[in-house]
Amino acid sequence: MHLTLGFFGNVDPGREEKLRERLEQIEFGSFFLPLSGVGSFKSRGAPSVIWIGVGQGHPHLFQLHKQVSEAALAANIEPDLRPWHPHITLARCRGASAQAVRKFVRENEKLDGGLFPVDHFALYSSRLSSAGSVYNSELIVRCRAPRST
User: Fold this and answer.
1) Active-site residue numbers?
2) Which of 23, 73, 102, 128 gives the lowest tally of CB atoms within 10 Å of its CB?
3) How many C-beta neighbours within 10 Å does residue 115 have?
4) CATH 3.40.50.1220 fits 13-142, yes or no
């Protein structure tokens, strides 16, 4: 399960180090996101990803997304410019029956998943292998309230 705050594609090692430094400087307080509704993204007509929504979004989540994007810009990395639609990815559907996925989504489209605590974010890298993508956690940034000035 993950919620993508930013996608940066291939990043050379020098810029990656600068990105890490900038991400480590981000200060945010913990908050909760409501988990509600299940949906899917399609790839050529068949569902490719199952997701759960995070309500109408949360101001703290949008602020965190903004700070991550600004950290990327400060590291000379172009952030993803597509519109951002926050969601938690539950599963990839490669090899799954499209009919079964659609049925699951339809039966859970009004799911109330309660509240999800957000107290950290992570920087992940991915490497393609013959078995698929391999994900590695490169950095974890835990919440801390912004300093008062």
Assistant:
1) 2, 87
2) 128
3) 12
4) no
